[in-house]
Amino acid sequence: MKRMNQVGNVSSKYYFAPEKFDEDVAKNNKDYESRKLYIRNSIKKILIEKPDRMEETFSMMIDALKKLKTEFDL
User: Fold this and answer.
1) Could you read off the pLDDT of 36-69 as tens digits, one per residue?
2) Structural domain contains residue 40
3) Cα distance between the two ends of the chain
4) Is 64 part of any domain?
5) Which member of 3, 9, 17, 46 has the lowest number of beta carbons within 10 Å of its beta carbon?
6) Within a domain: residue 48?
7) Whole-prediction pTM
């Protein structure tokens, strides 16, 4: 079997296990999608608590997000 030349920084955790990189990327993507779904479902739950005030609640959420953005300097 032909040996492949290793490329990259020896101190990288992926240098001796490059397949771990693809696993970590896949795990991070899965975690990202899971968090996004959780946030969406949480927002949806709040919105449907008062169906007759959805627009008002949505506006309140946007205002709260803007304040959090400023508070955390995002």
Assistant:
1) 999 999 999 999 999 999 999 999 999 999 999 9
2) yes
3) 50
4) yes
5) 3
6) yes
7) 0.72
